[in-house]
Each structure stands twice: as C-alpha cells, then as structure tokens.
Amino acid sequence: MAQVLIRLLRSFVRPYTREVAIVVVLVVIQSVANLYLPNLNADIINNGVAKGDLGYIWRTGGVMLGITVILGLLSIVAVYWASLAAIGVGRDLRAAVFRQVQSFSAHDMNRLGTASLITRNTNDVQQVQLVLQIALTILAAAPIMAVGGVVMALREDVPLSSLLVVVVPLLAAVVGLMFVNAIPLFRSMQGKIDRINQVLREQITGVRVIRAFRRNQYERGRFEVANADLTNTALTVNRIFVLALPALMGIMNLTAVAVLWFGGHLVDSGEMPIGNLTAFMQYIIQILFSVMMAVAMVILVPRAEASAARILEVLDTQSEIVDPREPVDPPETTGHIEFRGVTFGYPGGEKPVLTELSFDLPPGQTTAIIGGTGSGKTTVLNLIPRFFDVTSGEVLVDGVDVRRQSLERLWSTLGIVPQRAYLFKGTVAENLRFGGDGVTDEELWHALEVAQAREFVEKMPGQLEAPIDQGGTNVSGGQRQRLAIARAIVKRPSAYLFDDCFSALDAGTDSRLRAALAAETKQATVVIVAQRVSTIMHADRIVVLDEGRIVGLGTHAELMADCEPYREIVESQLGERVA
Amino acid sequence: MSSRGPAVRPGGRPGAGGGWMGMGGPPAGKTKDARKTLRRLVGRLRPEATWIVLVTLLGSASVAFAVIGPKILGNATNVIFNGVVGKSLPAGMTKAQAIALLRAHGRGQIAQMLSGMDVRPGRGIDFNMLGDILLLAVAVYALSSAFTWMQGYIMAGVAQRTVYGLRRDVEGKLAKLPLKYFDSHPHGDILSRVTNDIDNVATTLQQGLSQLLTSGLTVIGVLAMMLWISPLLAVISLITVPLSIVVTLVIARRSQKEFAAQWRWTGSLNGHVEQMHTGHALVQVFGRRKQAMEEFERHNAQLYSASFRAQFLSGIIQPAMQFLANLNYVAIAVIGGYRVASGTMTLGDVQAFISYSRQFTMPITQIAGQMNLLQSGLASAERVFELLDAEEETADAAGAVGLPDLTGRVALEHVAFRYEPDKPLISDFNLEVQPGQTIAIVGPTGAGKTTIVNLLMRFYELDSGRICLDGVDEHDLPRDEVRRAFGMVLQDTWLFAGTIRDNIAYGKDGATDEEVIAAAQAAHVDPFVRTLPSGYNTVLDDEASDLSSGQRQLLTIARAFLADAPILILDEATSNVDTRTEVLIQTAMARLRRGRTSFVIAHRLSTIRNADTIVAMDGGRIVESGTHEELLARKGFYHELYNSQFTEAMVEAQI
C-alpha cells in the first residue's frame, strides 16, 4: 500500500544511509534494553522478593537505573540522527522538485498547474518528511520490539508464548479490517469536503449572480445535499474509528487475563518462576503496545503515499523541451525569425492549432499578428522560445532551427512580454534587472521612459527602489504592462515578442509607447500579437490568422483593400462608420 | 494489565497528520474571549444535552472499569503468589505456625513477607478463586471497552450533527449578509471561515471534548487507586509528574520558537516557489534559472536548519517522558519489591501499581495535546461565530408584495449614496428612464461603474432618495421582486461547477430543456456547445477553464435571455475575448436589449452614441449625465473622456 512512497524514499534516503544505519542500531539497542528491564524485574521478584534478599533487590535496582539512564541518552541521540536524515531528505526533495519544475516546458506547467506544483513543492514534501521521521523513530522500533519481545517471551516460556500466536494475528485482523474499510471512506470524505468547499466558494464569489437570479433557495439545496452527504460519510468514518481503540484495548487486556490464567497453571506446576510471569506480562504489553503505536502512525501513510505520488509525478515528468545533444551556435545574432511550414497541435488535441505557417520576420521590422481566439496567435509566439515544439516544419532564429540551439543561447536573444504581465516581489529596479544584472540606473530610466513608465515610477515612493508586491498587485494593470515592457527593453534582445501586452493601456499611451519603441528597436525584430486594431495598424506587416492558417498578410492599407476577415475585425472594433 | 490510551491513539484524529506531538501544526490563532466562545459552543450542543449526559456517564463508567482492572489483576497475581509460597510450606500448618517456623530457622525476612500475605501452607494456587477473579477482570475490561465504544459512537453523532448544523447556519448566513460584507472582506478569509475553521471545530468536537473528559477522569481515578494501594509509592510516582510537566514545558517553549521559525521559512520558501512557478516562462527566457535556484537553496537551507531544530527538540519530548516513566518504573519495582519482601505490600499490588504509573503520565501528556486542540478549535469557533454575528441585510418591508407586469420604467429620485461615511459618491442624482431606453454608463477603469448596478439591484441600500420601478419604490418591494425585474450580464462571468445546461437554466427556476436551448441559440452558445463531446451535459470544472472567456460570457448572456427580465444590466467590457467571439457577443447583447430597458456599462462607441442617456463616472462618482450631444457641448469630463478614449482610434483607422 505504500509502493510509491517506498520508491520515492529509496532513492532519496540513500545519501543518508549512514544516519539511518545509526538510528536503526540505536533503536535495536533501545528495544533490547527496554525488554531487558522486565527481565530484571523478574529477577527482583524471583531472587530478591521470593528469597527475601533485600541486597539483591537494591543491586538489581541499581542496574535497572543505569539501563534507564543509558536508554534515555540513546534515544535522544537516535532522535538527533533521525531528524538529521528526515529533514535532510525533506530538503533534498524540495530542491529536486524545484529543480525539475525549472526545466519544465509550458506544456508541463499547464498540465500540472502552478498552484498544484507549489503544493507539491512544500506541503507534499512536508508529509513525506513527517512520515519518514516517524518511521525512523517509532515505526522502526515496532518490528524490533515485536521480534525482540517474541524472542524474550519464548525464552521465558514456550507454551505461554503460543498466546502470541493467537493474539498477534487477531490484532492484525482487527487493524487490517479497519483499514480496509476506512481508507476508501477517507478518500471519499476528502472528496466531499472538497465539494462543500467548492459550493461555498461559488456562493461567495458568485454572490451577485445568485442574488440577481434569486437563486438562494437553489444554492441552499445544492449545499444541503453536499452537507448531508459529508455528514453521513464523516459519521461512518468516525464510527469505524471509535471502534478501534476499545477493540485494541480489549484484546490487550484479555491477553493479560489469559497470561495470568495459563501462567498461573505453569507457576503452580513449577514450570515457571512467578517473577517470570510478571515479566511475561510486561513483554506482551510492550509488544502489543509498540504494534499499536505503529498502527497509529500507519494512519499517516496513505496520506504520505498520495503526497509521494504527487511528488513522483513531478520528478518523473521529463520535459520534452531540452537542450540538443550537440547545440549549433548561429553564426550571428540578428534576431531574424522564420517560420517554415510550421504545423502545431497540442498533444492529444484533435485539430492542429497551426497549419503550414510560413513567414519571415526580418530584423528591423515590426510584424503584427491578429486573429480570433483559437486562431493561434499566442501559439505562434510560444513556438519561438520553444515553450512548445512544432509538430512539423521548423522555426528558425538567426537561421538555425530553435531545436538545434542551446536553450540559453536561444532565450538570450529573445525579449518577451507576456499577456499577463507578471512582476516579482522586490523593487522596481530588481524587476527591471531581471533583464540583465549589470545594467546601470540610467539605462533603467531610459527603458522606463521608452515604456512610458518613467512618469509613474518617478511618483512612486523610492522610485527605482519602490517595492513591488508579488505579482505586481500594488500597481495598476497598465503600469504592470509597462514595467514588463521596460523589463524586456532592459535586456536589449535582438527579437521582441509582445503578446497582447498593450491591452490595458489607453489609446494615447499606447501610441506614444509604440512610437518610442520604434526608435528603440530599429535593429531588432519585433512581433506584436494584439486584439486591438489601433495597436497594430502601423506595423510593417500584419499577419491575419484564422483557425491556424494565414488568411492575410500585408500592410493595413493592403489588407483593408483585399482581406475580408481583416476588414471584419476592423469594423467590429471601430464601428460601421469607419469602414 | 491495562494500559489505557497510548500517547497516540489509533482512533485519534483520522486523516490529520499534522498534529503529531501536538505542536507540529501551523500556529493556532488566538482567541479573543475563549470563555465566551466556549460557552457559545457549548450552547450549540444544547439540543444534544441528553446524549452528552449519556456520553459523560458512559465515559465515567468506562474509565472507572478501566481503572479497577489492574487492581483486579493484581489480586489474581496475589492468588498465584500465595499459592506458590503456600506450596513451599509444609501442609497442615497454620500461617502463624509457618511464620514462627521460618523465624526459628533464621529466615526472618521471608517470615516478615509471609505475615503480609494470605497464605495457607501446603496449598497450591487456588484456581477456583483465580478463575473467579479473572472472570471478573474479563467482565470489567469487556464493559470498559464496550462503554468506550458506545461513548465514541454517540459522540461521533453529536459532533457530526452539531457541525452539520453549524455549516448549515453559516451557509444560510451567507445568503443574508449584505453585499457590503463580501466587498469589504477578502473572499479568501470568508471562505477560510466557512471551510477550514468549521473543519477544525469538527475535529475539536469529535476528539477534543470527549477525550479531555476521559483523560481527566483517568488521571483522577488512577491517582485515587494509587493512593489507596500505597500512599508511599503514589508520592514517589507523583514526583515524576511535575518533573515531566516542567521538562515538557521547557522543551515545548523552545521548540515552539523553532516551529514558528519553521513556519516563517516555509512561508518565505512558498512565496519564492509561487513566484518562480507563476513567472516560469519569464524565469526561463530571461535566463534566471540559476539565480532562482540559488535563491531557493538559500530559503531551503534556512528552512532545513529551523525544521531540524524544531523536529529534534520536539522529538526529545517523547524519549524524555519515556525516561521519566522508566525511572518511575524502576523506583516502583525496587521499592515495591522491598516492601513485598518486608510484608507491607502484596506482589499483585506492585504489579497493579506499575500499570497505574504507566497510565498516569499518559493522560497528562494527552491533556496537554488536547488543550492545544481545544484552543485552536476555539479560535476557529470564534471566527465562525464572528461571521454568524455579522450584521444582516435589513428584512424586506412588511407586507411587501410583488409587482405586476413591469413595463421597465425606472426612476432614480434624489439618490444619495456612499460606501464610506466620509466619502460621498453620489448625491441628489435624478434620472428618468422610459421603457425600452438605453442608459450608457461610461468612465475609465475603476470609476465605480458597478456602483450603479449595486444600487439598481438593491445590493446596497441608498443613503437617501429612492429608486422606483414603474413608480413603485424598490424599498417597498421584497428584494427578490426587485431582482426579478433585472437581467444581468457582468464581465465577471460566474459559472458554477455543474453542467452547461444547469448553468444556463440558472436564469430561470424550472426552465425546460427547450427554453434552455432557445436561450442558448439566441446567445450563440448553441453551436459551440454542440461541438463539445457531451454537449449541454458537459460538466464545467471549478474554474470552467475548458471554456474561453468569450464563451463563458456568451453563457451568461444565455442565462439572461432565459431570465427574460424587463430591465437589463450589461457590461460590454470584453477583455481577453477574440474578435470573432466579440462580434457574437455584440449581436447577442443587441438582441437581448431589444425591447428592454437597459443599463449598459458601455465600451463601444455606437452604444454610447445611441444611448438615450449617458452617465459619466469618475473616481466612484457620477460626474455628468445627459445625451451624447448635450455632454459634448458641455465640454466637461465626458468631452475629454470621449476624445481620449474613442476618437483617436477612430481617426487612426481612417487613415
């Protein structure tokens, strides 16, 4: 039931073999010593109490005290090494997950989801780490105690030990039955909690719609179903679990009774000294106890198993976007981009998103791409930095197929401004320097000026050192876009890819920005994807896409004259009168 | 021998692993008034009073039986030991004779022991007696287990029913809260109260309360038994109690600090991971992977050392407790043995005592853990109660009745409104809208255009003035009647997890399939829905990410078609919508508006120019209103807005 967890741990625990070995040795010593205590107690009874030898009682007591002290010290040392190993594995797992995600392609990111990847990187690792820590301290002791206990019990008395043959399977059966019943219920309970949370989340985010459509009653009903469902399942789960404790306790206590009854006979017939009876009872308790502790801890395993599976899914995902074995360095860096017969379809997708696209994006020119959603505009851009790889055909940058270049080389030539301008937590300057570490403040200001961002940055407290919140939520959408553009300018790439990143700008800023940008990017290749006609109508060339095919290519005037789809777009945006 | 309650109970906290050792979890919130919250939580349990009394009785009985058990087993051991010793003495003697004989042989020590025992010389173990005692033990233990089970079984019902009711009340409360509440509280916070906090309360009720009861009773019961058997040994055992409390507290206080650090570092690591994953493509293209990894390693190393210290410190509590327990065990074994030998105590009592001392420390550590659980549960309960106590919408006016067929005439008379007392937004605003007219609401982003929606639909109450529908003050109508008058298509396209059919049918109670499809056709939804493998039965997931934002918008238009209200509120803004879909949305909206009064948050030139009245907003306030020509002539805010926002694009396009 924990194959995945074991598979994950096998490779990650290996570097900690030494630590784990030390822990195991210590746990063995502890268990043996723990089992030896009742043995000494038996001696006290047999040799001290029964024979009236007070000195013996004190001496043996001294030995017991010594063992106890050593035991205490040993277990602290064991916890030290166990923590070292478990926390170390946790750290390594986190780093491995993070490193793996860094190599992911856009496709991998979409498939696994950012939020889920964050959870996997921290919470899931935490779960695995917790179980490892427990496994090393408590779980490891259980089999050793159980085996040691059985050995000691056998040493004391063979016939009485046969009790264990009955009790241990019984215990296993009870525990097993409980697990078999409870684990699927647990899973379904989690699903029902998720459902409740979902309904409530919808009620909170959709409060206006619900009220506008007067659907409170309907929502009430939807919630009621989920609530009753969860309550029933939770009740069943809990009622199974409240059976566990009394059942296990009952078994343990009845075992003690049985020991006294059968042991009494053995003592009576002289086959066993009375002290050993007491010791025997303590062995049994200790064995059952450690088994129960282990059982209690095993409850954590299914959860860790799920976490391990989620971590492994990340670690097992090999990004298809990797450096070529023998990278080709293009002779010169001009930013020249070319699409040759490019067809692209998402894995598993029925229809290709792009079909047989061929066009040239020469340096020094601005090319705009326009078209409906699903027409593949953004996909065109995504193929250039290899966020996705073409299905057939090739994309060339500086005359070399992007798949034959090293990723670092390829990326260093591109400046990207994504649709959703994302800023990192830090200062304005830190965000801009994403484009290059050694950039002077003057250059930053220059980039801000081009991006029409100088004015508002000057007004921010601290200016370049003004703090930016995670995601850039403390500046407006338009400001965010302009900072993202400035960040790309700071990088001074040979090709700029703008993915609909002027949408939050008003028309005036938009046109000023484009004018400034034109001066800045004279040598570079510029590709602009946009929804707004006014943003792109001055481009050197406009590519009109429809359902992944080029349906028009030319200047605004040319397209207005002979490209019906383009005219449609213009009319829809600027009104009948314009056309 | 019984050992009630291991440190971690098999039945404890199903599925919740974080509570191991009671301090691994995130820091629990602080309660402002724990006692009041507790009283209130207990108040919610009142309907379950009978059951709770029963739970208490069963719990007490179960503990009582469990506590008696070891003493009974001790008696059994005594019978055996008596038999062993008795057998070694010559038969036919009385106990006194045997003692005298032993003393005469210089074995005074054994004689002394014998004097404290119930021995009949020459007779072995009395199996009849042993059998009776053990049968009693079986009965006692069986009853104890049965009672524990019944207690848990009933408590599960009590807890689940209470939480069920709590959840129901909270959900009901959501429907009664004014919109203001949702707008002024982060959604994440509300959501967390109704989900995480209630879950936490459930855990507390299920485990905390009844276990606290059992643990408390066990401590008392065991203490009583120990004092009864041997006050001396009891005192010795009790010495380790304060010792273990002190040790736990000292270690816990230090490790708590480390845990706080651990959560802090987890937070900062999380923040970094979140940013790097969200900005994944940027990190790659800007060549920042190395820096991202370095930064990660830095956070990771910090987290490692904090976690290690926290884990190690909290990890030694258990061995430390074990050490003290062992110390106690040794003391009892030695001193007990000594006392048996000197005849002042029986062997069975020593044995019973050993198990009592084991039982004693455990509930004490458990109580500490349960107090933690209770505290965090109370903090959660308080947050839930806060939500339940939040001010509700005013009740609908008494005797409020519905409207007959509305024509769609809307009048705003002397309307005044402000969200915050010191920021007046709208004052003395008047607007008369005839049936079928269009009102365009314009203004830059963030100008507060939704305020109008809020007021028209009575999501917020006016400060003064009134809004009339066909001459009837909205205030005199039930809210549902007001809202029945409006169809709404907002930019925030809210869809719920359900089928496309259900999402469209949301517009009308009991809509038939034909009506749904007709609405879908009118809104241009039908064609794309039919291309989906499951058609109208396609289940939209949480974020409805399988639909484009344009398609989502069309769905909400279909919904409004189905609602067929005389007055419409539309938001024309269509960001992230491709041009094709945008055309569809435009035509669908135009069709929807036909013959209805409509308030349009306008973004298209044509809508604005053709509107009967334009309401221009800025900074949350209504700045101007009038027709396009009037407002242009006024050369005010609208004039400026119109020139900057709309004409430039138009002029450019004409080149």
Describe this structure in words.
- The complex is a heterodimer of chains A (579) and B (655).
- Chain A is an alpha/beta fold and 579 residues long.
- In chain A, the strands form 3 sheets. Chain A has a 6-stranded mixed beta sheet, with helices on both faces. In chain A, strands 2-1-4-5 form a 4-stranded antiparallel beta sheet, covered by helices on one side.
- Chain A has 20 helices and 12 strands.
- The two termini of chain A are 69 Å apart.
- Chain B has 22 helices and 10 strands.
- Chain B has helices spanning 34-44, 49-88, 95-104, 108-115, 127-176, 179-184, 187-229, 231-278, 280-285, 289-315, 317-341, 347-389, 449-456, 479-484, 500-505, 513-522, 526-531, 549-563, 579-593, 605-610, 628-634, 637-654; strands spanning 410-417, 426-433, 438-442, 464-469, 472-473, 486-489, 567-571, 597-601, 613-618, 621-626.
- In chain B, the strands form 2 sheets. Chain B has a 6-stranded mixed beta sheet, sandwiched between helices. In chain B, strands 2-1-4-5 form a 4-stranded antiparallel beta sheet, with no helix packed on it.
- The longest helix of chain B has 50 residues, at 127-176.
- Chain B is elongated and about 130 Å long.
- Mean pLDDT of chain B is 78; it is low at 1-28 and 647-655.
SSE order and pairing:
The complex is a heterodimer of chains A (579) and B (655).
Chain A: H1 3-13, H2 17-49, H3 54-102, H4 106-112, H5 114-156, H6 158-205, H7 207-212, H8 216-268, H9 274-298, H10 300-316, E1 337-344, E2 354-361, E3 366-371, H11 377-383, E4 392-397, E5 400-401, H12 407-413, E6 414-417, E7 426-427, H13 428-432, H14 441-450, H15 454-459, E8 467-468, H16 477-491, E9 495-499, H17 507-520, E10 525-529, H18 533-536, E11 541-546, E12 549-554, H19 556-562, H20 564-574
Helix pairs in contact in A: 1-10, 2-3, 2-5, 2-9, 3-5, 5-6, 5-9, 5-10, 6-8, 8-9, 14-16, 19-20
Chain B: H1 34-44, H2 49-88, H3 95-104, H4 108-115, H5 127-176, H6 179-184, H7 187-229, H8 231-278, H9 280-285, H10 289-315, H11 317-341, H12 347-389, E1 410-417, E2 426-433, E3 438-442, H13 449-456, E4 464-469, E5 472-473, H14 479-484, E6 486-489, H15 500-505, H16 513-522, H17 526-531, H18 549-563, E7 567-571, H19 579-593, E8 597-601, H20 605-610, E9 613-618, E10 621-626, H21 628-634, H22 637-654
Parallel strand pairs in B: 3-8, 3-9, 6-7, 7-8
Antiparallel strand pairs in B: 1-2, 1-4, 4-5, 9-10
Helix pairs in contact in B: 1-12, 2-5, 2-7, 2-12, 3-4, 5-7, 7-8, 7-12, 8-10, 8-11, 8-12, 11-12, 16-18, 18-19, 21-22
